[in-house]
UniProtKB/TrEMBL annotation:
<dbReference type="GO" id="GO:0071973">
    <property type="term" value="P:bacterial-type flagellum-dependent cell motility"/>
</dbReference>
<keyword id="KW-0966">Cell projection</keyword>
<comment type="similarity">
    <text>Belongs to the FlgI family.</text>
</comment>
<dbReference type="InterPro" id="IPR001782">
    <property type="entry name" value="Flag_FlgI"/>
</dbReference>
<keyword id="KW-0282">Flagellum</keyword>
<keyword id="KW-0969">Cilium</keyword>
<keyword id="KW-0975">Bacterial flagellum</keyword>
<dbReference type="GO" id="GO:0030288">
    <property type="term" value="C:outer membrane-bounded periplasmic space"/>
</dbReference>
<protein>
    <recommendedName>
        <fullName>Flagellar P-ring protein</fullName>
    </recommendedName>
</protein>
<comment type="function">
    <text>Assembles around the rod to form the L-ring and probably protects the motor/basal body from shearing forces during rotation.</text>
</comment>
<feature type="signal peptide">
    <location>
        <begin position="1"/>
        <end position="24"/>
    </location>
</feature>
<dbReference type="GO" id="GO:0009428">
    <property type="term" value="C:bacterial-type flagellum basal body, distal rod, P ring"/>
</dbReference>
<comment type="subunit">
    <text>The basal body constitutes a major portion of the flagellar organelle and consists of four rings (L,P,S, and M) mounted on a central rod.</text>
</comment>
<dbReference type="GO" id="GO:0005198">
    <property type="term" value="F:structural molecule activity"/>
</dbReference>
<dbReference type="Pfam" id="PF02119">
    <property type="entry name" value="FlgI"/>
</dbReference>
<keyword id="KW-0732">Signal</keyword>
Length: 372
């Protein structure tokens, strides 16, 4: 009995040591259908009703011009003298952006984001006047208008200022109504549909083709390349939506991602996936620092000499370089071992970026190094 329990324990330990297989994911999380896409919209408008936090018209003349044009369309005419003397504090010029979802129909409401274009201090409490939103082709696809919701807050007094979050950007939920639909052709000529993987991977593409053909029959899916899959859609148009719904719910185990290290040089962030490995190598890294101290020396003239006090600045520069001992980095087969080996170097994230680049050049880092 004890021998049997010992074998069971060893089997469980070996099972835990084996690499875990990739978890199955729904097809809708891995691919997108060609023709089903969002469309960005952009527009220009005016926000009114601000509490003295609008644009300074002397520095943003386009705000005044936009207001004059809008009033002219409403039948109000202003002469040149009145326009030049306008001091607007409750109006701000803004850019309005939105995303038109696929299959949107006229009358549908979409969210819009309103961003200050001039030097307005805050858009809090403002109302966006009717602003047309255009697509890349210059056609108007939606009209935006409504009260802004600004998440920031701030106050200022006697030269002191405090602010939380952003005050120059607001959002209007459901603030635009779709005026024109964008044609979306999911099925192409000959009853053919196209799926595109979110990430290029030949192995995952082949697994998707096998899973689709297993559920719908051989020849339903054909891989055109490592990212594009061609589908044979149902001949009856009324069954296309049902066909797409069944496709999206197919479970596929994607292939293991390629070994990759992502380095953000601006923030010093380093992210690596579980496929990263290291080969035996030796690393020496030293820090170079420059310290500059500046002092002011004052020379006083003698008594009754009619001289002037002279102040001069003296600087001392020190150059310091820390010695970096040559340290051996052992080969690492798992991500935990890689992290342990890199931490043993005792380098800062900024230094680690240089070390990883050198390891990649020497062939010791078995991963793609991508700097963003």
């Amino acid at each position: 009995m004890k021998l049997f329990l010992r074998f069971v324990f060893i089997a469980l330990a070996l099972a835990a040591a084996l690499p875990q297989a990739a978890q199955a994911e729904r097809l809708k999380d891995l691919v997108s259908f060609q023709g089903v896409r969002d469309n960005p919209l952009i527009g220009y408008g005016l926000v009114v009703g601000l509490d003295g936090t609008g644009d300074q018209t002397t520095q943003t003349p386009f705000t005044t011009q936009s207001l004059v044009n809008m009033l002219g369309n409403l039948g109000i005419t202003l002469n040149a003298a009145t326009t030049q003397n306008m001091q607007l504090k409750n109006v701000a010029a803004v850019m309005v952006t939105a995303v038109l979802p696929p299959f949107s129909r006229p009358g549908e409401a979409i969210d819009v984001t309103v961003s200050s274009l001039g030097n307005a201090k805050s858009l809090r409490g403002g109302t966006l006047l009717m602003a047309p939103l255009k697509g890349a082709d210059g056609q108007v696809y939606a009209m935006a208008q409504g009260n802004l919701a600004v998440g920031g807050a701030g106050a200022s007094a006697n030269g002191s200022k405090v602010q939380v979050n952003q005050l120059a950007v607001g959002r209007i939920p459901g603030g635009a109504l779709v005026e024109r639909a964008v044609p979306a052709a999911v099925t192409q000529a000959g009853g053919v549909m196209t799926m595109e993987l979110n990430t290029l991977d030949f192995d995952t593409t082949q697994k998707i083709v096998a899973a689709v053909n297993n559920d719908f029959g051989m020849g339903t899916a054909i891989a055109l390349d490592g990212r594009t899959i061609q589908l044979r859609a149902p001949s009856d148009p009324s069954q296309v939506v049902s066909f797409m719904a069944q496709l999206e719910n197919i479970d596929v185990r994607p292939a293991q991602a390629a070994a990759k290290v992502i380095v953000n040089a601006r923030t010093g962030s380093i992210v690596m996936n579980q496929m990263v490995t290291l080969q035996n190598c030796a690393v020496a890294h030293g820090n170079l620092s420059v310290v500059i101290n500046t002092t002011t020396a004052v020379s006083q003239p003698g008594a009754f000499s009619n001289g002037q006090t002279v102040a001069s600045k003296q600087s001392s520069i020190q150059l310091k370089q820390d010695t970096g001992a040559l340290k051996q980095v052992a080969a690492s087969a798992t991500l935990a071992d890689v992290v342990k080996a890199l931490n043993a170097l005792g380098a800062t994230p900024a230094d680690l970026i240089s070390i990883l680049q050198s390891m990649k050049a020497a062939g010791a880092l078995r991963a793609d190094l991508e700097i963003i």
